[in-house]
Amino acid sequence: DLGKSVAFENWPDMKKSGVCPFGQLPILECEHGVVAQSQTAMRYVARKVPAAGGKDEKEGIISDMLLGLSEDIFDALAKAQPTLLAPKKDAEGVKTFWDET
Fold first, then answer.
1. CA-CA distance, 30 to 28, in Å (whole number)?
2. What is the model's pLDDT at position 84?
3. What dihedral angle (degrees, nearest 10) is formed by the CA atoms of 27, 29, 34, 39?
4. pTM metric for this prediction
5. DSSP state of 68
6. Is residue 95's pLDDT more than 90?
7. What are the strands, taking DSSP E only, across the chain?
8. Which one, of 4, 48, 64, lies nearest residue 29 by Cα?
9. Cα 12 → chain centroid
10. Helix, strand, or coil (residue 56)
């Protein structure tokens, strides 16, 4: 089932249930079981749906590079951007992220 979401209040019970291999989201449920880690899930989809991985090896490499870059950007933003779980982040850190990243 594509597009399942987990309500914030249901997450603690889901985490305790053991359905998430590393106690994290996102997960992808497939015929092989539960796939954890977003990059692993994206690579799996690219193998299952060749058009998602590019028309040739060069496009596949570019796709992987962009995927890695997106993780780097996400990690940098997560350190600066306030979130529901960490609402008190330094406003200057957010400005620095957008100005320098």
1. 6
2. 75
3. -50
4. 0.62
5. H
6. no
7. 27-30, 33-36
8. 4
9. 19
10. coil
